[in-house]
Q: What sequence folds into this?
């Protein structure tokens, strides 16, 4: 391992762009945001910290902050297959996207915009820009998982998928070979659905059984 920079920055997610050689994106979330969300070990601050999106075009040798905002933090990153400059971000304040690497735009559309979103993945459909799979961290009754179909003019239509067989916190979501197949990671284990969330099969329980 070798040190690549960003000393003191609370890095929370790292992603290489699979469609553009050498592009690395690094997201950061201030400790004060985790305190606001009630995570143990983090305190609420009167002075909100700054969340940042760092970008490198040379495999991480040089990183520069392309976007920053107070009381905000990145938690997961995905790149759009249609255009490699488009980034989808799960954050502590909802879901964001950017298409020019200089500013983010929030797409609320009923997806609990001020909650911590931790899971996001992208799949290129036959029609439109992307299908985006996402969900917030935690839930009062049941874990929530949403799919958004994003049209050519950035007009997403969100649908809540059937409840997953877990009340534990969602950690990650990944599309597999098609829009009907995906895996989700929770505190209960890893679950796989092959029928668009209608049924799930636990492929790796956290208790090892």
A:
């Amino acid at each position: 391992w070798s040190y690549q920079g960003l000393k003191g920055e609370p890095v929370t997610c790292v992603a290489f762009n699979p469609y553009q050689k050498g592009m690395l994106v690094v997201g950061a979330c201030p400790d004060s945001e985790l305190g606001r969300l009630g995570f143990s070990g983090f305190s609420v601050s009167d002075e909100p910290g700054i969340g940042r999106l760092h970008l490198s075009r040379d495999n991480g040798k040089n990183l520069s902050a392309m976007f920053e905002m107070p009381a905000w933090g990145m938690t997961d990153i995905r790149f759009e297959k249609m255009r490699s400059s488009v980034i989808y971000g799960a954050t502590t304040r909802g879901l964001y996207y950017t298409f020019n690497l200089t500013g983010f735009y929030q797409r609320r559309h009923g997806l609990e915009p001020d909650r911590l979103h931790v899971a996001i993945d992208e799949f290129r459909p036959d029609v439109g820009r992307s299908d985006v799979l996402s969900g917030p961290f935690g839930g009062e009754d049941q874990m929530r998982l949403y799919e958004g179909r994003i049209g050519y003019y950035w007009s997403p239509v969100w649908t809540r998928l059937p409840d997953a067989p877990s009340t534990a916190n969602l950690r990650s979501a990944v599309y597999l070979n098609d829009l009907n197949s995906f895996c989700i990671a929770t505190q209960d284990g890893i679950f796989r659905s092959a029928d668009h969330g209608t049924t799930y099969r636990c492929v790796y329980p956290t208790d090892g059984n």
